[in-house]
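Consider the following assembly input.
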Amino acid sequence: MADTGLLEALLRLLEKVDGGIDSQDVAADLGVDHQLIVGAVKSLQALGEVISAEQKSSKRWELTGEGREIAEQGSHEARVFNAIPDEGLPQNELMKMPSGKVGFSKAMSNKWIRLDKAHEGGPRVFKTVETIEDTVRDKLQLVQKGLSAKLEDKEKNELKKRKLLSEVTVKSYWITKGSSFSTTITKQETELTPEMIASGSWKEKKFKPYNFEAMGVAADCGHLHPLMKVRTQFRQIFLEMGFTEMPTNNFIESSFWNFDSLFQPQQHPARDQHDTFFISDPALAHEFPQDYLERVKQVHSEGGYGSQGYKYDWKIEEAQKNLLRTHTTAVSARMLYKLAQQVNTHTHRLMLVSPLFSSDLTLLCGIIFQEKFTPVKYFSIDRVFRNETLDATHLAEFHQIEGVVADYGLTLGNLMGILHQFFTKLGITKLRFKPAYNPYTEPSMEVFSYHEGLKKWVEVGNSGVFRPEMLLPMGLPEGVSVIAWGLSLERPTMIKYGINNIRELVGHKVNLQMVYDSPICRLDS
Amino acid sequence: MYLNNKMLFSIHILADEEFDELCFEFGLELDEITSEKEILIREQGGEKAEGASDVVLYKIDVPANRYDLLCLEGLVRGLQVFKEKLEAPRYKRVSPADGGEPQRLVITEETASVRPHAVAAVLRNITFTQERYESFIELQEKLHQNICRKRTLVAIGTHDLDTISGPFTYTAKPPGEIRFKPLSQSREYTAAELMSLYKTDSHLRHYLHIIENEPLYPIIYDSNGIVLSMPPIINGDHSKISLNTKNIFIECTATDLTKAKITLDMVVTMFSVYCDEPFTVEEAEVVYPDGRLSVYPELAYRTETLSGDFINKRVGINESAESIAQLLTRMCLRSEVSGEGDLIQVEIPPTRADVIHACDIMEDAAIAYGFNNIVRSTPRTYTVANQLPVNKLTELLRQDLTAAGFTEALTFALCSEEDIADKLRKNITETRAVHISNPKTADFQVARTSLLPGLLKTIAANRKMPLPLKLFEISDVVLKDETKDVGARNNRRLCAVYYNKSPGFEVIHGLLDRVMQLLDVKPGRNQGYHIQASYLKIYFNDSTFFPGRCAEIFSCGKSIGHLGVLHPDVISRFELTMPCSAIDIDIEPFL
């Protein structure tokens, strides 16, 4: 804070005037440097409504260094004149004076002096008048006193040409009284303290106003990753819809569960080295449910369950190959197989305890199947791996979101209905479905939603009804349909957070600032 | 594949929007609307495109299982039937005219080891135009890429029958004994010479591996010893077809007989339309080494019977059997109601090899009905949701770790061997890492065995950020495990790092205390948790951590991980410059 004396002097000056006062004038009046007045104005502003000050800029004439010298000691020509005694002065001596050269020619043209070139002992200078009037000095002194307005523009420009004056832009404040103007200063407190609360002194104090324009101090906290925030929301949606989470914590899968159990033939292009990461160590899976494996082999190579099959030589060696799962549907297959085992175990148990019913056994089993099979809704969100060419939207690993419903009599209309509910929770209500091909679902549908921004239909997911060739060898009852759908987690996240390159979202190259700054995720808004 | 306006006109479609809708409804992808000129400009620049045609072209992608839509002839035919502008043709196998002997292809036993199957057929009195000829060649190429699995399963050879004379012999010979003039070459080569000649051929070199290391190469001769083809690589020049070819002999050699039959059926059903007697195909006999004789093409029609009720219940509609039969007929599955209840007789033509189960028929009914005309209804399946315990714990811990001031990283599950071994001052053999056999780059050599490398790489990419950097990740690593069916298992880990001008061991130690508090484990030697110096690691000098600054973490007497200050070598190997401390624990014991 500027010195209180100065502040109060300024306030007293302001009290006397009507309207306002220029800070430059204040400086001149109080005889202090303008910068001090600027400081005082700022201090007073910080006190609240004591004064109000508006910044303005004006042009002002100011003496140059040489100009100040002249205002003090007289113009060069005057100094030359005054140096000449009545008997005159040799020209070469006069020229040795600091002002000699300039003063001589100016005094000559003013006709204050004359030069006698023929004088014995060399050229000699004599006064021609008794007294002179040093107007240059007078004018400069006027400017020095801040009275440059008394000079004509022509005069000022001439002095400027002689580099005695210069025109400068001056920033100043136009100061007026504020709403709580007073000529005495009360010191403002910056913060409330425990002492003030204890003593009650806060009641008497004035507090320095806060600058609400500034940003606050960044919160000292950690941040969740945006992709994981979106994952949390998708989990939440599935849980709200009554879906149970599948154990997808097994990245390494056998070709059997990843492909064969899904009725994906062994020559399918997805099983190529170009598309799938195979494992060299441990290269092979060593344990399969044998009777189920036989049924899978049969449905591929010969058909059955109402199917023609693919009619090729199915090889266990191909099914044993370990790989990094290419979809979480491998886990769905394991879960559906497990579900079917529960049905079958129950039936076997019944057969053991009830041999008497043997004649009605077939009928009874049918009933028991229906009674024992428990409908399920499953979901998972986890990593899958593809040995693909990488680009701005494709990485070798990404997260797949998958939903599966198994129950009696599910229809294609049911699948569309549940997809409608699911996407509504994502804020997407306009859906349409396109026939597609997928080796393990029939029918298969691509899900499109209308993108208001792009003004077109964009693909948002894939869906279908699992083929009987997949379900029946598992041992699921014939009337049970399983509907499923999937989408990637990365794509909706990139759209949500406006990210164009997947590397800016996933992996170690992400900018942590992006993680720090990303907002919470509400998918439906 | 590109369609033009003329073809659209033949399916009575005039507007682009209408065609777009049709494609969507039918399950085709209308990729773009363009012209020959635009394509040339894009692919070869403006100059080459001068004088090229402005005629509008529609680029279409077809589903991978619909081989019958792979060529223009089939696609337009399929859409015409769908729009009920045409009745699906009936494909017929016929004997040679005038009671002549059918063409015969004799397979010798030498083929057994390399490519044991072959099928054949003849297209008689065909009329090619430039367009038809190009489409014929293109279909073969598409089938080769698609159902033939880049010629590994099936290879197609087409020949001008009037330049050769049967019976034909399909045999296999040592490469040195095979000698002929191949397509587009001016002289004869031995098979061995051809293999080196085609090493640099941008197209053919992709097929060489199929037979390259076989002692015997497959080869087809006519009765005069003229080479028809050396499948699956190249045809002979002698029998090549041209615009003027009238009679075509088609052979498909294969390692998969089913696919060979389908491929042959596709070629003949698609192009018999240009024969004098459209949709007829002349039979050919194939004689197996054991003397069995088969007649091809099969052109088999199969009839399936299913009920209207089945379709209605699976799709979720309520249509009469007659109406469903009509829907199926529009999908080239000629159907009629059989008269018994609501049973429908569905005839599967040889073009629809994709129909192998009633569910395929059901899908076609649904497509013809229109997916988007089906009423959407919510299933009444009642279930109670459950979270996977390990994911539930992960979700809860993540929240609290951010509350403790740590920021969540998301790093790759795959990485290089170096990341998990050398850079961490570990020996790769001790990591129990799962190795990938076919990585395209070093970034995908192994599945990670630790979350630490990913976190350190994240810091390295963010060195410009203000210090300290506090990161964590709770995610899976993968370890070999003999007790699992696949020999490996995931393990859920919690890893956190503190990176600053001072190592901040106390910060990481404090984080451990906080995590244990959250898991309701008290400090203590027996039922609680404690940390103790990890002497073993110092002794073997293989530690990721700085000697004397590493402790093992025990919970209820069981080792669950480590914490400590990272070894300076580890820090610099990850291109970092500041001290860093880390914690790495298994959270599965807390489930």
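DSSP finds 20 helices and 18 strands in chain A. Ask yourself how this observation constrains the way the partners meet.
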